[in-house]
């Protein structure tokens, strides 16, 4: 299925939908969908990252991220379209569900 770059208006609408009900929201920073997750400890953070990594590999859509102990800073972008696509919002939603399985 081809991937389409979302317009600014479409990205803002998708961001609002993604953030509905979330205590800590995602933001669009420098054209990337970004969020910093914080967990109880490194084990929880790495468990979260492992679930995300396996999903990302299945989808062939990979995050930019960094980890320091209990924090995981995530930036999502679709390199193939040089911008945001539905794939980024899909991955962000999955990341939220994986984060919910790990201790904050
Ligand atoms: N991940 C992300 N975030 N954006 C992409 O455009 C992308 C990817 N493209 N993972 C995939 C891999 C592409 O390079 C391969 C060839 O399908």
From TrEMBL:
It is an enzyme of class 4 (lyase). Pfam families: Pterin_4a (PF01329). It comes from the Bacteria. Keywords: Lyase. The keyword Heme does not apply. Its EC number is 4.2.1.96. GO terms for molecular function: 4-alpha-hydroxytetrahydrobiopterin dehydratase activity. NCBIfam families: PRK00823.1-3. Belongs to the pterin-4-alpha-carbinolamine dehydratase family. This is Putative pterin-4-alpha-carbinolamine dehydratase.
